[in-house]
Amino acid sequence: MNFKLEGVVVPLITPFLEDYSIDKESLKWLVSYLIENKVNGLFVNSSVGEFASLSIDEMRLTTKIVMDSKKDSVPVFSGISTNFTEESVKLGKEFKDLGVDAIVILPPYFFKVSEKELIHHFSLIAEKVDIPIIIYNIPLYTGMNISISTYKTLISQYSNIIGTKVTFDSLIYFKRLIKELREVRKDFAILTGFDEYLLPLLSMGGNGGVMGLANVVPKFHTRVYDSWKKGDMERANKYWLDLLNLTEIYDYCNSYTASVKVLFKILNMPIKNVVRPPLTICEQKSEELARKRITSLLSSLANSE
């Protein structure tokens, strides 16, 4: 493995044209923009990227566009989550051939599987796809929180399961996850899916975050991580407080995706404010609230440099 799973990983939004087709040029622009802003990784076919609204062919297309657009120095992780294990295996093999650095897998998000079935699902993929694997735990969307015992079973048996992204609102869970999994594998990476948890998780021994708002102004996130890595906790905490203020924007719209995409519109960036139904874009009142907050925070960002 020639990369480290750490720092600020961006779960890419999927740009759309007005007819809901994928906006290929905007996706290329986004990849270049994020690389220029020195993020630590790109995650295509993410939840904030509306992967559940993409066809299998579109998941292939977005992955190919990102791989063709990126520079060699930035790792790319591609989601292969489906409700049919063998379909995920097939996608994983295809994405390996495209050159992705790792694949990302959710638990099945329709069937309420048992722990035994969940272990079987992840195990089959780990056995059949020879590539680093990141487990994605997001109970809000899957209806199940992956137990620590499930993680311990999997990472003790499969060295290619290298880390996890966890979008679960519990620092106690993270504390236990870090302590107990590091007893099994010191190299196992643990990242948060919540922007708000970036600094707390790093301070607890975690590795970073996969955070939606980093699509737009990644410096809010990267300066927290960079300051922490340098041991400058005073600056890291100061920047984290700005990041907390930024995350209020999530509360203005009906979805995380809409919140991220409206910021591109507000900042006149080349990503259209289009989401696929049943999601809807932010209402005008919410857009104005987001405009006031991001304008204020960007002014503060400029003054602090």
UniProtKB/TrEMBL annotation:
It comes from the Archaea. One of its GO terms (biological process) is N-acetylneuraminate catabolic process. InterPro entries: Aldolase_TIM, DapA-like. GO terms for molecular function: 2-dehydro-3-deoxy-phosphogluconate aldolase activity; N-acetylneuraminate lyase activity. GO terms for cellular component: cytosol. Pyruvate binds at residue 210. The active site is at 136 (proton donor/acceptor), 165 (schiff-base intermediate with substrate). This is Dihydrodipicolinate synthase family protein.
